[in-house]
Amino acid sequence: MSELMPVILSLTILIGGVAGAAILTWFERRLLGVWQDRYGPNRLGPFGIGQVAADMIKLLFKDDWVPPFADRLVFIFAPTAIVVAMMMGFAVVPFAPGMMIIDVNIGLLFFLGMTSLAVYSVLLGGLASNNKYALLGGLRSAAQMVSYEVFMGLSLIGVVMMSGSFSLVDIVEAQTDVWFCFSQILGLIVFIIAGIAESHRLPFDLPEAEHELTAGFHTEYGGMKFAMFMLGEYLGLMLISCMIVTLFFGGWHGPMLIGDWLPPFFWFSSKVFVVICFFVLLRAAIPRPRYDQLMSLGWKVMLPITLVNILVTGAVLLWMEGVA
Amino acid sequence: MLSELRTMWEVLKHTFTKAETVQYPEEMPYLAPRYRGRIVLTRDPDGEERCVACNLCAAVCPVDCIALQKDTREDGTWYPEFFRINFSRCIMCGMCEEACPTYAIQLTPDFEMCEYDRQNMVYEKEHLLIDGVGKYPDYNFYRVSGMKTASKDKGEAINEARPIDTKSLLP
What is chain B's Cα-based Rg? Predict the structure, then answer.
């Protein structure tokens, strides 16, 4: 059974991830509708859930066209890269005790590495399209990802210092009593912002800013290849939400004072749900910054905050060690 | 930063506000009685066509979508031989209704007149003419106008003075 578990779980995550991303497209539109005083897609099926199937049928039957001026091989490879990378990222997410595909002692680094690989998708997609808008989108994403990657990693150093491990299971176990969202509040804020930038969602969707770059890096994409980009984006959203919950909100543990009287997976998934709703709220509320604002926010605000966070966390840990 | 947080709070408060959307086909929007929609030709209380084919509506129409031809009945009254409105051109401005001296042409609160074939947007008199009086239930042009018809002579119309006999010296 224990040897079969990872296989079953991988298949579940594969199917669940794709289905979850598909449902998320509908859920996000409905939620945006709620916050913008309208309904969103509500015509097909109960609550408009049939919109998911309608969208999928439409995308599947679209002409799978590669522009003659594009770099054919790279053009086709680019959308798969983001889906594969994001799917791989799910391998280390601890959904519940024992309910994870692989518990490696460098789980956190693995996650960071996989999200970094996703940059290639946007970058190569923009480059291979041989289109000015796409190239500008790819260019922007390259600069954005590279700079936000820096303190996305650094913001997690505080968590690693406090739990003393890169293994995500150890990190969750270290939050049994107190979640890291209190002691690592600066790290949490920076990680959320960097996470949005990393999954290039609104308000940091500058690589595909439709008002400036038509559709940015995926201007030339259509049909299933476009759907792969979207799938990757929503998978990234879910992955970032899972990681925020794992690293800062106690993973599968129930809320403090209330306790663990419900199944661990329930706590995990409901927390992930809340974080996803928060991301949609950000999309509904916050306008997109200008590109230089994005960069100066990253380097002049976020980086110093993370460095201060690391310094203070380290100092406090050493002081407590000295006291004990 | 504070302004962003405030924005998020303000948006979050909209969770509990009702959607503004009107679910159109199921939920009809309220249209005022004076709404300018589909054009009809009305009849007077006696059931005769009100239109006297004066052509004022066709003249005032800014998109020239109205076409008609005058004809005369045996009793001397006028009526349109044909009356045609091309609704694919009509902009529902209501100027024809304002110009009409007999309240014959009226706009109604109905806008659902889509067609698959463009030719079907051209309405003839049989499509335009309704069996009612529209917004002015008591008005009959030939009863108040000084025009002589088979049923009434000069001076017999409502509120009309007797015609002055210019050949007589009597007061």
Answer: 25
Residue B55 amino acid letter: N
B15 reaches A (C-beta below 8 A): yes
Q: Helix or strand or coil: residue A34?
A: helix
Which residue on chain B is closest to A287 by alpha carbon?
A: B4
pLDDT tens-digit readout, A58-77 = 888 888 888 888 888 888 88
Distance CA B136, CA B10 (A): 50
The predicted model gives A95-116 an average pLDDT of 83
Which of B2, B5, B6, B8 to mutate: most A Cβ within 10 Å? B8
**Nearest residue on chain A to B7, alpha-carbon basis:** A285
Average pLDDT, chain B: 89
Q: Could you tell me if A297 lies within 8 Å of chain B, comparing CB atoms?
A: no
C-beta separation of A239 from A89 below 8 A: yes
User: How many C-alpha atoms does A219 have within 13 Å on its Cβ side?
Assistant: 26
Contact A221, A229 (CB under 8 A): yes
Which string of b and e fits A278-313 if b means at least 16 CB within 10 Å?
ebbbbbbbbebeeeeebbebbeeebbebbeebbeeb
- What value, to the nearest 5°, has the Cα angle with vertex A178 and ends A250 and A270? 30
- Touching check for B7 and chain A: CB below 8 Å? yes
How many whole angstroms separate alpha carbon A286 and alpha carbon A69?
Answer: 37
pLDDT at residue A221, as a whole number: 84
Tell me the nearest-neighbour CA distance from A49 into chain B, angstroms: 17
Contact A281 B20 (CB under 8 A): no
b or e along B103-118 (b: 16 or more beta carbons within 10 Å of the residue's beta carbon)?
bbbbbbeeeeeeeeee
Does residue A1 have a pLDDT over 60?
no
**Contacts of residue B10 in chain A, CB cutoff 8 Å?**
285
Dist CA A93 CA A108 (whole Å): 9
Q: What's the N-to-C CA distance of chain A in angstroms?
A: 43
The answer to whether residue B21 neighbours chain A at the CB level (below 8 Å) is yes
Chain A window 196-215: which residues touch B at a Cβ cutoff of 8 Å? none
**Is the model's pLDDT at B65 over the cut of 60?**
yes
Cα first-last separation, chain B: 93
| Amino acid letter, residue A7 | V
